[in-house]
Amino acid sequence: MNIIITEFLSNLFPIYIKYIFEAITMLAEQYTVVVIACMIYWCINKDLGRRLSLILSGGIGFNGFFKNVFRVPRPFDISDKVSVLRKSTATGYSFPSGHTQNASVLAGILKNKFTRKSIRAVIITYAFLVAFSRLVLGVHYLTDVIAALIIGFGWAYFGNKLYEAVKENTFKYLWFLVPAFLSIIPLFIKGTIPPQSNDVFTGVGISLGAVLGTMLEVKYISFTIEGSIKRRIIRFVLGILLLLLLLSGLKAVLPDTSAMRVLRYFCVGIFASCGMPFLIKKFSI
After folding, report:
1. Mind listing the pLDDT tens digit for each residue in 146-181?
2. What is the Cβ-side half-sphere exposure of residue 283, based on CA atoms within 13 angstroms?
3. H or E stretch including 65?
């Protein structure tokens, strides 16, 4: 039944409608949620941005853990009746959906910042639209997106509780590294289907950078987001450009190994959480 649903939905809509769902799915890709978290952290609400970065990076760890525990092949690897779009974003195994989990974690955190029911409904709808888009694009099963919604909203709830419990003690931010290290365990489990490690090491690097960078920022930097709208826009654009230069530069010079992948994304995480805040404070950006 799982594969039948994906086959049906992936062939249901004309291509111009599928492009709309492709745009929706792009709103939950890792780079997109990183940009959103950075924008909020650097320019809008420091506490919310810090909360987002720690919980989102933890979510990547949980996703990598479950993917390599279950090792479910993608629908397009099972059936040639599945019509696939944006296949390049379907990395790792199928269960659970990373895009859907990103969207539900993001929605689960952001909805708490609004009291108006209409705004909260829009935010939650975003997560469900991303889930549906993954079926329409032919890259997931129904069980993948249902599980991802449950894991994502569940982790957003408990991650928020954890953040409130540890935010007064800098050392306790280390608890947010647990999902990243948990994701490494299934890599040592032997089976007929081998584990896939790239997304795991990406998540480990980002988590290490986000957590350690947050600890350094709290203890030594303590930047503020004050400034005019124009100044904040300049700050955001500059920060994203520097982040992209860092990522592409490290990718060009470092060998493509697991250790170097961890290092590369560690640098991204620590720049976003600590490096850019240092520049903001040092140069009054």
Report:
1. 999 999 999 999 999 999 999 889 899 999 999 999
2. 12
3. helix 46-70
Question: pTM (2 decimals)?
Answer: 0.94
Look-up: residue for tokens 């296949």?
A: 87
d(CA 101, CA 29): 10
DSSP 75-133: HHHH-TT---SSGGG--S-SSS-HHHHHHHHHHHHHGGG---HHHHHHHHHHHHHHHHH
For the chain, what is the mean pLDDT? Answer: 94
Residues contacting residue 59 through CB under 8 Å, at least 6 positions apart: 101, 102, 105, 151, 152, 155, 156, 159, 179
Nearest CA-CA partner of 66 in 94, 34, 30: 94
C-alpha–C-alpha distance, residues 7 and 10, integer Å: 5
Which H or E element spans position 251? helix 229-253
- Rounded CA separation 4/285 (Å): 53
**Structure tokens of 193?**
């289907």
Average pLDDT for 76-82 = 92
Model pLDDT for residues 176-204, shown as the tens digit of each residue: 999 999 999 999 988 888 999 999 999 99
Rounded alpha-carbon distances, angstroms, from residue 105 to 237, 242, 276:
25, 26, 24
* Cβ atoms 210, 275 nearer than 8 A: no
Amino acid symbol at 31: Y
Contacts of 65 (CB under 8 A, 6+ apart): 179, 182, 183, 185, 186
Checking if the pLDDT of 210 tops 90, the result is yes
Is the link from the previous residue into 73 a cis peptide, with omega within 30 of 0?
A: no
The reported pLDDT for the residue numbered 150 is 98
pLDDT class of 92 with cuts at 50, 70, 90? confident
As a whole number of angstroms, the distance between CA 94 and CA 137 comes to 13
